[in-house]
UniProtKB/TrEMBL annotation, chain A:
<dbReference type="Pfam" id="PF00071">
    <property type="entry name" value="Ras"/>
</dbReference>
<keyword id="KW-0547">Nucleotide-binding</keyword>
<dbReference type="InterPro" id="IPR050227">
    <property type="entry name" value="Rab"/>
</dbReference>
<protein>
    <recommendedName>
        <fullName>Rab18</fullName>
    </recommendedName>
</protein>
<dbReference type="InterPro" id="IPR027417">
    <property type="entry name" value="P-loop_NTPase"/>
</dbReference>
<dbReference type="InterPro" id="IPR001806">
    <property type="entry name" value="Small_GTPase"/>
</dbReference>
<keyword id="KW-0342">GTP-binding</keyword>
<dbReference type="InterPro" id="IPR005225">
    <property type="entry name" value="Small_GTP-bd"/>
</dbReference>
UniProtKB/TrEMBL annotation, chain B:
<dbReference type="InterPro" id="IPR018203">
    <property type="entry name" value="GDP_dissociation_inhibitor"/>
</dbReference>
<dbReference type="Pfam" id="PF00996">
    <property type="entry name" value="GDI"/>
</dbReference>
<comment type="similarity">
    <text>Belongs to the Rab GDI family.</text>
</comment>
<protein>
    <recommendedName>
        <fullName>Rab proteins geranylgeranyltransferase</fullName>
    </recommendedName>
</protein>
<dbReference type="InterPro" id="IPR036188">
    <property type="entry name" value="FAD/NAD-bd_sf"/>
</dbReference>
């Protein structure tokens, strides 16, 4: 990790097929790929450079790697996250009804004070909407989250959830405290070794 | 974690590999095989990750587990006892691990994680000094006078006795007197070469905690300046350490060390050191604590102890910003965190993890042995791969796989059959810090240790030492101001609990403000000689992870062996695909 810019870690959670990966890919790479709606295999997270109040920040965006399907997300997934984006599908009522579970997960495993943003996705599916905007707003309010409805297909409101969440994080000094970011007092930096070091290490023990 | 019982069907009924369990080795293999492009289904009959290496996130989770242990549902665990101080809220803020392992700087795990680009997936913290309970009387006993080895010692040792007797006089007045006030005035040590170098720095920095827990001398400064060593002891210790570092050296010049090691493998560490590098018994006990082996120095064998000492001393001084440390530990639960991170990495590599699901039965696939009609092959039925094994899962689903990797869960009989080893263990949450073990040892260090090791040596014949690993709140495993004590001793039964309790009490009572015990969990772990038979072609049984305090190199080795069996090569074990690597590099620009 060469960049010295402050790093912000955001997570996406929510039920299967709610549009998490689509939202992520549209935001980071401006891709909307209906045929290949799975996360990139082999890569843990995506990086996006963002500017907050004129200052560059490095945004790390973590997707669920499909672990939400069998509800086997690890609690370690939530480590040191400053923001959580919870995504449901406005055309799938069941996905909305499961959001209580996902808010519960975030409160149990993420750092106290983590910034939450609720997102209703796929609003382009006008005809098949089963969750009203007001319902989403009310749920977000209940859990102290901001709320957006968006469409990865039409790009509508794609940036807002991320931008708002990042702004709120940067405005919360306790969340920008290095101790929360895994750079605790006692943390040893294990820099990846250079090739030369690896070559010299052999089988030393 | 999961409150929903209904699961969707598996995305496929056909997999290259079914991994049963999510303990350390299974998780390692799930990542390695997934990254190698194999399709991996990882299941665990528990509803949580980690199996016997898991961690608990609340006191009530622990109580649930303890009940399962006492009902005989957790193979290898027994006699769980939970204590909770009234009014203590254990709903969140705790991570109580069954596997708070230490990871040496020179370890197969760290080498592997570096090559796998995964060191960043963990918060690494330093393990500080080792501390051993030694009274003033203990340290006053000079070399070779302990009597145990007198029968064996030769002329050289006899000379030593004379020398040491002289030294003893000089030592009178207690090894530790006045050190705190004027350390510089302590011991006008001259002698081994290292002293000269160290003399320019501050002399001895050896500390004491909780009465008689004395810091084990291990850095050059310590060895050079330790006040409970005479100059002659220093020389012998230097010689012994040289032997330790060269005991497996291939250099022709070092063959004598190798030969000494080979010739003495079955001697006890105590007898071996007493005879060849006559050190005071207290120094031998201190050294033995660095092995983290459950036996006392009078019972641990050179063949087991010396390689561990070599790992310890070889690791020492390498960790950035904390040169007095030799080992690291993973925050948020040690190896329990490792299992979780690996399981996610397996999913990132394309695998699927399912919890709360086990194997009901395994059968050799009938289809596999049948000759597939040529016409079918030509019809391009490519996706219809013929698998070796049919597996029925406990929810009734059937999957077809080529390999099953599981853990040898043969239940050891309660009667402690021969070969079974029992360890009494306990976890304590205490209300205060323990000073000064979580302070920097040297001013030029910038890292504060997050864990340390204490040992209470065995005093009675047949007794075993008690090890206490203390972890501070910096690990993220308890609220600020509190500490976690992981305690263990080898035992033949519940008797170990008494030893554990008295060792912990000894530590707490000697604090200026004795911390209170807020919560404790005691349990017995039993490991057994693994049957280790792979019952069927394609079914691989891993040996269960042992009882120790260290993440063992052999676990990585066993995982690599299994990988080689499946892949035909060790090449590429845990390596990221080139495509994934490229993508990571691009993102980092």
């Amino acid at each position: 990790m060469s960049s010295q810019d402050p790093t912000i870690k955001l997570l996406l959670i929510g039920p299967s097929n709610s549009g998490k990966t689509a939202l992520l890919l549209r935001y980071v790479d401006d891709i909307f790929d209906t045929d290949n709606a799975t996360a990139t295999i082999g890569v843990d997270f995506k990086v996006k450079k963002v500017s907050v109040k004129g200052k560059p920040h490095r945004l790390l965006l973590f997707d669920t790697a499909g672990q939400e399907r069998f509800r086997t997300l690890t609690s370690s997934y939530y480590r040191n996250a400053q923001g959580v984006i919870l995504v449901y599908d406005v055309s799938n009522r069941e996905s909305f009804l499961s959001m209580g579970h996902w808010f519960g997960e975030a409160e149990t495993y993420a750092s106290p004070g983590v910034i939450k943003c609720l997102v209703g996705s796929k609003i382009d599916r006008v005809g098949s909407r089963t969750v009203k905007r007001e319902e989403g707003e009310a749920l977000a309010k209940k859990y102290g989250a901001t709320f957006y409805e968006c469409s990865s297909k039409t790009r509508q409101n794609i940036r807002e959830p991320f931008v708002t969440t990042v702004d709120r994080i940067v405005d919360t000094p306790q969340l920008m405290d290095p101790a929360l970011l895994g750079r605790r007092d006692g943390t040893v930096a294990l820099r990846p070794r250079t090739d030369e070091e690896i070559a010299n290490s052999g089988c030393s023990c | 974690m999961a409150t929903f019982s209904e699961h969707p069907p598996l995305p496929s009924t056909s997999w290259d590999i079914l991994i049963s369990g999510s303990s350390v080795k299974q998780s390692l293999l799930a990542v390695a095989l997934g990254r190698a492009g194999r399709s991996v289904l990882q299941i665990d009959e528990n509803t949580y990750y980690g199996g016997s290496s898991t961690a608990f996130y609340s006191f009530s989770d622990i109580c649930t587990w303890a009940l399962r242990v006492n009902d005989g549902h957790e193979p290898g665990f027994s006699n769980a006892i939970v204590f909770q101080e009234e009014g203590v809220d254990g709903k969140r803020g705790y991570i109580i691990s069954l596997s708070p392992h230490l990871v040496y700087w020179h370890s197969a795990l760290l080498r592997l994680l570096r090559s796998a680009d995964m060191t960043d997936s963990f918060s690494w913290q330093a393990v500080g000094s080792w501390w051993v309970w030694l009274t003033d009387e203990d340290v006053a006993i000079p070399a070779v006078t302990s009597g145990i080895t007198l029968g064996e010692v030769g002329v050289k040792a006899a000379k030593m006795v004379a020398a040491v007797t002289g030294a003893k006089k000089k030592k009178k007045g207690g090894w530790n007197k006045g050190r705190k006030k004027e350390p510089a005035a302590e011991d006008e040590a001259t002698g081994i070469a290292a002293v000269t170098a160290a003399a320019e720095e501050k002399p001895t920095t050896l500390r004491r905690v909780g009465g008689n827990f004395r810091e084990v001398p291990c850095t050059f400064e310590d060895v050079a300046w330790s006040a409970d060593l005479t100059d002659r002891d220093r020389g012998h210790l230097g010689e012994f350490l040289r032997f330790v570092m060269k005991h497996d050296s291939d250099e022709p010049a070092d063959h004598k060390y190798r030969d000494i090691f080979q010739d003495n493998r079955t001697k006890t560490l105590h007898d071996f050191i007493s005879k060849n590098f006559p050190l005071p018994p207290s120094a031998i006990t201190s050294l033995s604590s660095l092995t983290l082996l459950p036996a006392p120095s009078t019972k641990m064998l050179v063949g087991a102890a010396v390689p561990r000492l070599a790992t310890h001393f070889g690791s020492l001084g390498n960790i950035p910003d904390v040169r007095s440390a030799a080992a690291l530990t993973i925050a948020y639960g040690g190896s329990a965190e490792l299992c979780q991170v690996f399981s996610r990495a397996a999913a990132v590599a394309g695998g699927v993890n399912v919890l709360g699901r086990g194997i009901k039965s395994v059968q050799k696939s009938k289809a596999a042995s049948d000759v597939v009609p040529k016409t079918l092959l030509e019809a391009g039925a490519e996706e219809e791969v013929k698998r070796q094994l049919d597996v029925e899962l406990d929810n009734g689903e059937t999957v077809h796989v080529d390999w099953i990797i599981g853990e040898d869960a043969t239940k050891p009989s309660a009667e402690s059959p021969s070969g079974a080893v029992s360890i009494a263990r306990a976890v304590y949450i205490i209300s205060g810090p323990i000073s000064p073990i979580f302070e920097k040892k040297y001013k030029d260090e910038t890292i504060i240790p997050a864990a340390t090791v204490l040992m209470v040596p065995a005093t009675k014949e047949d007794a075993r030492p008690v090890y206490i690993i203390v972890r501070s709140a910096v690990t993220g495993e308890c609220p600020r101001g509190q500490c976690l004590l992981y305690v263990l001793t080898e035992t033949s039964g519940k008797a170990g609990y008494g030893e554990i309790e008295s060792a912990v009490q000894r530590l707490l009572d000697n604090q200026i403000e004795p911390p209170k015990i807020l919560f404790s969990l005691q349990y017995i772990t039993t490991s057994h000689q693994p049957s280790h038979q792979d019952s069927m072609d394609g079914v691989i049984n891993l040996a269960s992870v042992g009882l120790g305090m260290v993440f063992e190199d052999e676990w990585v080795e066993e995982a690599m062996t299994v990988y080689e069996k499946i892949m035909g090569t060790r090449e590429g074990f845990m390596k990221l695909s080139d495509a994934a690597k490229r993508m990571l590099d691009e993102m980092d620009e």
